[in-house]
Amino acid sequence: MKVLLSGNEAVARGAYESGVVFASAYPGTPSTEILENIVQYDEIYAEWSPNEKVALDAAIGAAYAGKRALAAMKHVGLNVAAEALFYSSHTGFDGALVIVNADDPGMHSSQNEQDNRHYAKFAKVPMLEPTDSQEAKDFVGSALDVSEEFDTPVLLRLSTRICHSSALVELGERKAAKDERKPFVHNPMKYSMIPGFARRRHPVMEQRLKDLAEYAETFPYNKVEWGDRSLGVVANGVAYQYAREVFPEASFLRLGMSWPLPEKLIRDFASQVDKVVVVEELDPFLEEHLKIMGIEVAAGKEFFPILDEFNPGIVRDAAYEAGLVEETVEVQKVDTGELPPRPPVLCAGCPHRPVYYMLKKYGLVVNSDIGCYALAVLPPIATTDTLGCMGASIGVAHGINKAGVEERAVATIGDSTLWHAGMPGLLNVVYNKSNTVTIILDNLTTAMTGHQPHPSTGRTLKGEETVKADFEALARAMGYEEVRTVDPLNLKELEEGLKASLDSNKPAVLVTRSPCIFLYDERPPIYEVDLERCNACGLCFEIGCPAIIRSDEIHEKSGEAKAEINSILCFGCDVCEQVCARNAIHKVEE
Amino acid sequence: MKVTNFALVGVGGQGVLLASDILAEVGVQAGLDVKKSEVHGMAQRGGSVLSQVRWGDKVYAPLVGKGEVDYLVSFELLEGLRWLQFLNKEGMAIVNDQRLPPLAVSSGGMEYPAQEQIEKALSEASREYHIVPALARAQELGTERATNVVLMGALSKYLDVSEEHWLKVIEERVPKKYVELNRKAFAAGRGL
Questions:
Q1: Which positions in chain A touch B102 (Cβ < 8 Å)?
Q2: Lesser CB count within 10 Å: N end or C end of chain A?
Q3: Residue A493's domain spans which residues?
Q4: Which H or E element spans position A368?
Q5: Does B66 sit within 8 Å of A331, measured CB to CB?
Q6: Which of A336, A516, A545 to substitute to test the interface with B, most B CBs within 10 Å?
Q7: CATH number for the domain including A557?
């Protein structure tokens, strides 16, 4: 039976069919739906771990236990988990491990663009790359087979376009899983990486790479598709599909395994075509290898961009520039005038908004983190000075305060992000005694990736009840004396808490706790503007709420527009009522 | 059958993704090769949304670039303009006549494009365009949320796919208690 599946759904199905019994991940676009789909299979234990490093360590443990395991993460998640990737490359497993890595060319939902094929070469592990959902499913099984046969973790690299595109997939049955309990294989020389033992593993890894390169020559998804031999296209991942559209007549070498590369196959192909071009997203990974092999590349990165995500139009334009196709698609020049942009914004009623509104008032250096509140970088809120990666806010704020600038630096970090990578930074502030205030924006969920549970929600991925980890107790255990909790939707309480934290001039933690609007069962009563009272002072516009809009009514003296509240968007947070100096905003009577 | 390219655009929360799920499944029912592509995550927080569906005998890429879309279905007027460059000049635009002013208009200083400007751009960029009252039809049926299915009904008139396939997919995709409502929404769309 064939069904439409996204790449992420297909990977989950692949895990089921290939006998995976353990799966772990931390949510991150574009990889989140892999675990969200795996959870439907009772045969697979699945968890959200606090971060990708822990997820990978846990999956490695499952593979040491002789089972088939999967860990999933976005491209920057593999940075977090890199240390585990490297030691597991040394040890191998009694079982098998596939690490699903989702790159994000074009940075639809990421802080940086990076090509994680380099990790395969760097950590000396094989990497498979599907070109559609069918292969995404099948490659999970291939990766686990390779992992078992060659005693290595295997990277399965997807991209946003593979993760979030759907295509027809033929479903199969589940392979019998090795889920019986057996004694642990005690082998410290293989699994305990002290220098003396690791030195013995390194040559094993080098030999393994040679063996894998041999295997790559016959790997069924490294294949030549002969067409017109005047042009030979080397491509992988979704870029292969775009190249297929642009060069319908050409010969193709598609590489389902992007590391190690099948040098003999590549040489044979190159020798039988008039010219070789390489079509790959992001870095010139394949191109550089071909050049090292002495193969002339007629068109590579000087035409096919190193930046951003491809689509068939971009590939066709580049091919036209390179003189490889005779015409390109004509894009119509339509005069639409300058269109108002529609960027994503914090929702009306979001409990993060008043925190930034207050920080703006105090003229602080605001160091932020990864989550919905990254939207506070841009107008209308525009109250963030630095934002780097998961957990960076606290360390950076500490460094700024220690080095010293005129203003105080503070950190803002979400609940799930604090559990992910914030704890060591939080400890550093109190241990090394800076007057950094860390504001934990606790909206009781992992909001940006779609409201997954985390360690202080009291729920697991499988929906079971569990402990609720406690930020305030954590801070006190670390040695913080200044620990406060406020409701951010109460501006007076929020301001008092912030002011007391700053005034203490000590390491301080301020927890702003209020649920994400998506966690409410029903919408609270909404608000409206009394146009008689409104004097168009504009104070409420400064909150930056999408529900507060300019009305058609103009104030006579100032000539400014009075405010109006959009009754569809308003979520009744009450912040505008607290800001209004004229008492012109009030609850709508039922 | 030559590959047909669809782009469905609108604002996060308008039901663009569900409509593209239905469209893609209709292609499967009709026995075609189908691919669908969309963006999740941060881009969905009230922002501009694009989803693409392609179907035909054999589909390689899950999306196309500018100038290659045959049918542009926009759930909102301004978004119709924003994505107009994706349409090829032989293409058709079907645009819901709803206006959702973005923050740059409602509290910033920018102007929402005037109706004449929208129609002029649509007529220049397409072989044929239809501005349809899909929101009003859905509201007549009692819920704005059916706007997406009204728009699919409006699109279906121009496609060489049997109505049965559409009705079957709606029946399978929509919760049981809403099936009748969505059948009506689809019929209302076909009547536009």
A1: 340-342
A2: C
A3: 353-519
A4: strand A365-368
A5: yes
A6: A336
A7: 3.30.70.20
Q: Is residue A184 part of a domain?
A: no
List the single residue in A166, A341, A343 with the smallest CB-CB distance to B36: A166
Whether A477 is in a domain gets the answer yes
- Contact of A169 with chain B, judged by CB distance below 8 Å, is answered with no
DSSP labels, B66-86:
TT-EEEEEESSHHHHHHTGGG
With an 8 Å Cβ cutoff, is A339 touching chain B? yes
- pLDDT, one tens digit per residue, over A25-55 is 999 999 999 999 999 999 999 999 999 999 9
Q: Where are the beta strands (DSSP E) in A455-504?
A: 482-486
- A531-534: long-range pairs with CB below 8 Å, 24+: A531/A562, A531/A564, A531/A584, A532/A584, A533/A582, A533/A583, A533/A584, A534/A562, A534/A563, A534/A582, A534/A584
Of the candidates A202, A585, A32, A454, the residue with the CA atom closest to the CA atom of residue B39: A32
Nearest beta carbon to residue B38 from set A164, A312, A340: A164
Q: Are strands A365-368 and A386-387 parallel, antiparallel or unpaired?
A: parallel
- The answer, for B99 touching chain A at a CB cutoff of 8 Å, is no
Determine, for residues A332 and B44 on separate chains, whether the beta-carbon distance falls below 8 Å: no
Kindly determine whether residue A549 and residue B101, on different chains, have CB atoms separated by under 8 Å: yes
Instruction: Supply the pTM of this predicted model.
Output: 0.97
Residue A82 and residue A47 share a domain: yes
- Give the pair of three-digit tokens for residue B4: 């047909």
Q: Nearest-CA distance from B85 to chain A in Å? A: 6
Number of folded domains in chain A?
4
| Residue in B with minimal Cα distance to A381 | B103
The encoded tokens of residue A550 equal 């300019």
- For chain B, which domains are there? 4-190 (3.40.920.10)
Is A279 within the bounds of a domain?
yes
Cβ contacts below 8 Å, chain A against chain B, sum to 177
| Cβ <8 Å between B65 and A313 | yes
* Residue B102 near chain A (CB below 8 Å): yes
How confident is the prediction along chain A (590 residues), in pLDDT tens digits per residue? 799 999 999 999 999 999 999 999 999 999 999 999 999 999 999 999 999 999 999 999 999 999 999 999 999 999 999 999 999 999 999 999 999 999 999 999 899 999 999 999 999 999 999 999 999 999 999 999 999 999 999 999 999 999 999 999 999 999 887 767 889 999 999 999 999 999 999 999 999 999 999 999 999 999 999 999 999 999 999 999 999 999 999 999 999 999 999 999 999 999 999 999 999 999 999 999 999 999 999 999 999 999 999 999 999 999 999 999 998 888 888 888 899 999 888 999 999 999 999 999 999 999 999 999 999 999 889 999 999 999 999 999 999 999 999 999 999 999 999 999 999 999 999 999 999 999 999 999 999 999 999 999 999 999 999 999 999 999 999 999 999 999 999 999 999 999 999 999 999 999 999 999 999 999 999 999 999 999 999 999 999 999 999 999 999 999 999 999 999 889 999 999 999 999 999 999 87
Instruction: Quote the CA–CA distance of B147 and A585 in Å, as a whole number.
Output: 32
